[in-house]
Amino acid sequence: MKNVERRWWALIALALSVLVVGLDLTVLNLALPTLGTELHASTSDLQWFIDAYSLVLAAALLPAGLLGDRFGRKRVMVPALALFGVASLACAYSHTSGELVAARAVLGLGAAVIMPLALAVIPVLFAPQERQKAIAVVMAAVFLGYPLGPILGGWLLDTFWWGSVFLINVPVIVIALAAVILLMPESRSERRPRLDLTGVVVSSVGLVALVYGFIKAGEDGWGDATAVATIAAGVVVLIGFVSWERRVSRQPGGQPLVQLNLFESAGFTWGTILSTLVSFALFGILFAMPLYFRDVRGLDSLGAGLRLLPMIGGMVVGMVASTRLQSPPRGAEPGSGPLVGAKALVTAGFGVMAAALAAGAFTSVTSGTGFGATWFGVAGAGLGLAMPSAMNAALGALSAERSGAGSAAITAFRQVGAALGAAILGTVLSSAYQARLDVAGLPAAAAGTVRSGVSGGVAVARDLGSASLLHIVDVAFVHGLDIMLWCCAGIALAAALLALAFLPRRAGTPDEPVPPSAPAAIPEEATAE
Fold it and tell me: How far is CA 318 from the centre of its chain?
């Protein structure tokens, strides 16, 4: 097989790897009610089914990237994929809540290696002119996994048993594992950076505290003392981590866990920030809209998931357009710049997302499927335009020497951003929902269930046979949904303005300090012919 073809087949293997990670982030949401019944799980248990994955993922990201740089990205990726597959089997056949929480934690450990190393290999395998297309492939897999999770999860839950939502990972992992072993060339840092144990411990503690605090704030409100204290502790610890990393970098031969000079690159800094903001803007579609379709519109799990398909179509269209617009014009001289710069594409993409989310904020109890499909598709197209270029700006600043640690830093930012977005936007939705409720005359227990969320409210209304209460719950939820989508639109608009103001026109342009790639870290068989 030619080296050029092998690189692209290896990229497909990486895309399959991150696809299952994306699937696993959302496929569990629809299964939680079933798990509560089958495993006799408490509300706290259900929350830990999700939190165990998120917290281990946050803790292990930075050291996982460094291990890839030190020991070899393929050498670290292969056991991580195997671990992810074994943990998926353990999740599927768990008999108690404790077993499932432990298996989910191991699953998070595998994901913490897979996500950054899939990105880390791109600067090693692909030249700058090919990188945009390669990033589009991997990011498409990441973001396709999010809406595919509810679709596949809904079908599996309606057809098979709850463990099938985890078993779906196994065949994909087997294919990805075989492809990585056979097709992906090995690469690592020539300097083989030492493991900064103090940095690993401090960063892990800080990231776990921060993510857990945001999760708890989303569950119990921002007035919860434990949530606020945990967030504050996480911030303090991470400030200490930055101080330690600066100290290490100033020492002769010092090799910090994170190269802080990366943030001197406008491309890396703003590409990372903008890709993190995507997690905020997408929250309304990926988490709140399935609730709308299932509880307000009365669809089953599969029907709710299928309503997200237009976003996938829009995303594909946007990514294809982005890749073509970032290519040099036909007939241009070798080395010519792209047809459209990264700044223009990212700004336009976020602008399109903002407009689509603003349109979605006019959703009503009786809105038709066509209305949702239209703004979903447009939002997906905006995401497809913006995301590859934003990620290319960030990855373009990484040298082949430390691409693992750099990619892990990008992924860590996005993980914290997702947790923060879920906490803030979830609170906005919940507060607006509760403010519109009228539960006067209901027993205290029933009123508490109605206030807990739309699913509880719909269940109480149906148990009581009260059409008026059902209407109140539906209207209150849609009111909260619309306010939250306005917030998402505002975040997307802010991202567009930030891109316009600060993002370089092209990744790796001479006006920004981009570390040079280290040819010694690029495997001979991976270079273009």
Answer: 18
Long-range Cβ contacts of 31-34 (<8 Å, 24+ apart):
31/153, 31/157, 31/162, 31/165, 33/455, 34/157, 34/162
Residue 505: exposure state from Cβ atoms within 10 A (0-12, 13-18, ≥19)? middle
* 45 contact partners, CB below 8 Å, separation of at least 6: 36, 39, 97, 101
Closest CA to 496 of 285, 325, 344: 344
> Residue 275 and residue 269: Cα distance in Å, rounded?
10
416 within 8 A of 353, measured Cβ to Cβ = no
The C-alpha atoms of residue 255 and residue 152 are separated, in whole angstroms, by: 44
Q: pTM for the full model?
A: 0.82
Q: Tokens for 314, please give them.
A: 């829009």
- Pair of tokens at residue 10: 């290896």
Q: What is the pLDDT of residues 482-513, one digit of tens each?
A: 999 999 999 999 999 999 999 887 655 434 44
- Amino acid letter for position 252: P
| 3-class DSSP string for 118-178 | HHHHHHHHCCHHHHHHHHHHHHHHHHHHHHHHHHHHHHHHHHCCCCHHHHCHHHHHHHHHH
Asked if residue 328 has pLDDT above 80, the reply is: no
C-alpha distances in Å from residue 523, one per residue of 189, 326, 422 = 11, 26, 40
Long-range contacts of range 520-524, CB-CB < 8 Å, 24 or more positions apart? 520/190, 521/124, 521/187, 521/188, 521/189, 521/190, 521/399, 521/400, 521/401, 521/403, 522/124, 522/125, 522/187, 522/400, 523/124, 523/185, 523/186, 523/187
Quickly list DSSP for 436-450. Answer: H---TTS-HHHHHHH
Give the DSSP letter string of 510-526.
Answer: TTS--PPP-GGGS-GGG
Euclidean distance between CA atoms 322 and 306, whole angstroms: 26
Residue in 52, 161, 175, 43 with CA at minimum distance from that of residue 102: 52
Residue ranges in 72-127 assigned as alpha helix (H): 73-92, 97-125
pLDDT of residue 144: 78
> Which of 223, 285, 267 has the alpha carbon at shortest distance from 231?
223
End-to-end C-alpha distance for the chain, whole angstroms: 12
Q: pLDDT at position 193, please?
A: 66
Q: How does pLDDT run across 124-164, given as a tens digit for each residue?
A: 778 777 777 888 888 778 777 777 777 787 788 778 888 88
Q: Which two tokens stand for residue 447?
A: 């009123």
Q: 152: phi > 0 → left, psi -120 to 50 → alpha, else beta; which? A: alpha
Residue 94 φ then ψ, to 5°? -70, 140
484 token code pair: 């939250």
Query: Which value, to the nearest 10 degrees, does the dihedral of the CA atoms of residues 379, 380, 384, 385 take?
Result: -30
For residue 17, give Cα distances in angstroms to 179, 184, 411: 10, 12, 15
